[in-house]
Amino acid sequence: MTASHILLVDDDVELTELLADYLTTEGLEISVANSAEQALALLAPPARFDLAVFDIMMPGMSGLELLQQVRPSNPIPVIMLTGKGGDIDRILGLEMGADDYLSKPCNPRELLARIRAVLRRMQTPPSAPDTRVIQHWGLALQLAKRTLLFRDTPLELTSAEFNVITQFMQNPGVVLSKAKLTERVLHRELTAYDRAIDVHVSRVRQKLSKVLPEQELIKTVRGEGYLFIGEE
Amino acid sequence: MHRFNRLFWKIFAVSWLASISVILVTIIVIGELTERSSVREILEIRAHRQAEKTIELYERDPEKARRLVYRQQKSRHDRYDDDHWEHRDWDDDHRSHRDRYKRKPALLLNIYTSDGALLFGRPARYSGDEIRFTYTSEAGQNYLVSLPISPVKSHIARLKALLLSMQAVLVIITATLASLLLSWMIVRPINRLRDHVQQLHSGDLSTRLEPRLLGRGDEIGALAREFDYMASYVENTLQGQQRLLQDVSHELRAPLARLQAVSGLLEQRLGSDDKLVQRMHTEFERLDRLIEEMLSLARIEHLDSQSESFVLSAILEQALEDFRFTAPNRETQLTLDANAGDRFAGNSELMSRALSNILGNILKHTPSDSGVEIHVKPLGKSTAITISDAGGGVTPDALAHLFEPFYRQDQRNNGYGLGLSIAKRAVTRLGGAISAENTAKGLAVTINLPLFAK
Predict the structure, then answer these.
(1) Residue at B182 is within a domain
(2) Which residue, A67, A80, A110, B117, is most buried by CB atoms nearer than 10 A?
(3) Nearest CA to CA, how far is A123 from chain B (Å)?
(4) Interacting residues of B273 by C-beta distance below 8 A, sequence separation 6+
(5) Domain residues for B76?
(6) 3-class SS at B48?
(7) CB contact under 8 A, A107 and B322
(8) What is the tally of structural domains in chain B?
């Protein structure tokens, strides 16, 4: 198995050098961009990266704007480095749809763990292609093709969002805790003040409400988690 | 009605009393001067007429005259006795019966003959003012007539009449209106200033006084301009400090991130079991938290606290969830009084920051197995959120300084950092208040939030 190719985008040249050093030692192949423009050039086809890490706060084009430019044409998994002191709440508001979030400054070990979790999620090959199609409320979840159809029209979902809706539609009427969802969707453990799973659930909810505005399919159960309402 | 506060009524009372007394004194003095002469004139005319009648009657029939005088004197005592008014001897005819009631009683004249013998009246004991004149009868006899007048009595009577008259009512109304106007003119701009200073105090440093107040040419205008100048000065100074704090914290983050990357490289070489590496991580966490807190404090000032609202119970649940996640073995209990408000005005982030910092403080400073209780109950026009721990509380000295940044009880201790200062700042920006007290078990921090006005 070849080393995964990671694109590291941060305006701090020295930091990217050190992190590249660290991550290379851990067996990853690292490319570095020190501005959003540089990153866009590197991401242009035919480039093939397995994952990108974007710093939110960069002079000129920010990490959030970069993500907007990249998506949805490029489905590359993205980890966002957010600033301390409330950035995560702002991102919750913007509903950007990165695959995971990590606050900066962070322990490089933590960054490595997140990168591996996302890669694991991406690389999990469907061992025996699951041909089941799960249906609720006119939604058809095709597990083998990893698509969600509403009345034969596919909904655009990121990989993490697809995992979220899969968890919900496979367990209708069951309260899923944030810890369990984080484990199953993001393939890592929930940490303190971790809102990443909430971002994903919120995005899925928003997309579902566009096609089924009259029905709130995913309910928040305070203090416990989330619940998908099954069809009676 | 805060408008009618004490200063307002003080000014009102003083000016009301002053104007009432000035008006009353003026009326009395002027009235005295003008009325004294006119009353005298009227009395003189009446005395002349009465003397003429009495003397002419006396010269014709002394006995009849005596009876008349006797009746006159009697009628002064019981002037409403109808019988006396039936007699027409001394009365002008053609007057209706009703009119006679209004007629003034006869005067008590002292009439002397030209040689000084008292003919009618009483011997003169009165030494005050009197009207004196000589009357010559048709028969050519000279008589001396005197009428004592008592100025004191008429003075009091006039005052009494004045107090009950329409004039007095007008005087009181005018004085009241003038005093209200004066009080209002002085107190209103002062109230404006006070409201403005309150606004400044509540954290809105960018508010400036209205041009109407600033444009005044008087002392209040000058005071208002000084206030505005001071507010700009304070705002600039505070903003400068905050910007510095924010910039410093921000600039610290880049080297800290690099340092952490270096520590990761060191860890790769020395192994994650190395004690120095572990110690380094612990210190990084501290530094990290401190910078986060400093940025958090700066950020609170910039959050919009006006236009939004939040659901308290949801934020409490979220905060407790984070708390339970960090400390799964601690007991948590949330009691929500059904009558307490649940939706409040303000930015939800301010509230969640206040809560997470109070709970974070409990995590840091209480035994790792002690629990936390949150009670939400109505308190007058606000809702009280009390967060109690079982950590044994703090010393009274510490209690007084708990919300100050970096306050530490003793030098060895880690100090309270910025957590509770952030909580206080956030609650203040929400228009609420925060306080702390020791309970039997530990420390209880109470947040009072004003009820959502809608």
Answers:
(1) no
(2) A80
(3) 26
(4) none
(5) 6-164
(6) helix
(7) no
(8) 3
